[in-house]
Amino acid sequence: HRSMENPDDKYKIFDSSDLQGGAAAGRVIGFDSTGVVVLQRRFTYTAAFGLLAVGLGCLLGVVVSSVRAGQLQAQVQALRQAQSETCRTEQCLQQAAYLTKIMNHSANPCDDFYEYACGNYDKMLPYDHWFAYTSVFHEMDRKAQDDIETALSKPTADDSPNWERKVKDYYWTCVQYYRTYIHDENPFITQVLNKTDHGGLGNYLLGRSLDTASVDLMFRTVSGKYFVPSLFSARSHWNDYLHKSNSDWKYTIWVGSSSRGVGIIRYNLYYSRHQDIYKRFVKEVAELLIRDSKMNVPNQAQVVETFASDVLYVEQQLLQIHSDSWPSQWMMFMSSNPSHPDRMLKVSDLTNRMSSLIDFKAFLSSIYGQDKITDNTKVVMYSEVYMDKLNTLLTQMKNNNTQEYNRKIGNFLTWVLASFFEWDLSPEYRLKFKSIRDITWY
């Protein structure tokens, strides 16, 4: 076959003898486009051995998989047993029974319409709905909320830090939780008004007398211990000057006007009709306080009338000096920073500036602690005009009639405290406070 010869040996004709080592013996069946022989391979011993190795590997994989499957099955079985044991408690069985009831597959809403319609479903299949909300995570959340509420609901002690009192006051202000008390167990009455060791709160209202020392102690109790703004307020503010000077103190104490004390009747109560409504409201609350404290007050009608008149007088005076001092106070704010160290006052100087009517060292110590306040502690009087006018007002009241001054300030402080802690009184009080708010918007 000369036609198939290839003198240039460009294309070589292969036969089976040209294959090396019998690695892939076969027969020639033709050529492809490049002239390479295409063989139909047959198994040899080498190929058989390779296949056997692959088979053994697969068998080993199957064995390993079977072992792992057995272990997994054992774990699942153990888990099922554990779950079965867990659900043998009475509560778990009850819950499972109720869940089984509500999954009644035999009930057909169409065929059994009249059986389950018109509210009969709950009668036919009773189910305690609280079970639907019972879970491990829900119980953890509920327990955590109960613990927090319990901690916030506990009353503060005399040595409680200021932040604790603020947090608890803020909590009750936010949630406005309805705590209904029997009058005989009213905490405000038993722990505040009837106790003489709290500075004589409500002394005049309850038929007792007050002196100047008692008024000062009463003020520290109301605005210090109970942290209720009254004649003025005190609070802490960040001080950039102290921060930049690397001082150990980063905050300063600000003393000034109190929106709570001076604004409790608001400007709209200047109208006579609102004043009459407000005065009647104060008298009604005073009568409730006397009734619930079970005190025998001689001339009760006159005492209540005097109490209400004193409250309105002091509040209107504070509101007036607050209004008069604001324009000039604003100009002082614009001209200089009251937090500047050069404008800060020592606590002893502040007491002298207020004619010693208020012991500021004792007052601030009741808020921030005795170890924090000394006579040389610097404070910011951010409402100088108001504080000076307040000093003038209190001095004039005391010089005119000391006994009347003690009575008016004492009644005012009693009222401020009662109105601030209205949620610690019974619902009867709260409804009255709500009614006056609806009328006067304060």
From TrEMBL:
Pfam families: Peptidase_M13_N. Keywords: Membrane, Transmembrane, Transmembrane helix. SUPFAM superfamilies: Metalloproteases ('zincins'), catalytic domain. Residues 109-428 form the Peptidase M13 N-terminal domain. GO terms for cellular component: plasma membrane. The chain crosses the membrane at residues 43-64. InterPro entries: Peptidase_M13, Peptidase_M13_dom_2, Peptidase_M13_N. It comes from the Eukaryota. GO terms for biological process: protein processing. GO terms for molecular function: metalloendopeptidase activity. The keyword Membrane applies. PANTHER family: FI17812P1-RELATED, ZINC METALLOPROTEASE FAMILY M13 NEPRILYSIN-RELATED. This is Peptidase_M13_N domain-containing protein. It comes from Macrostomum lignano.
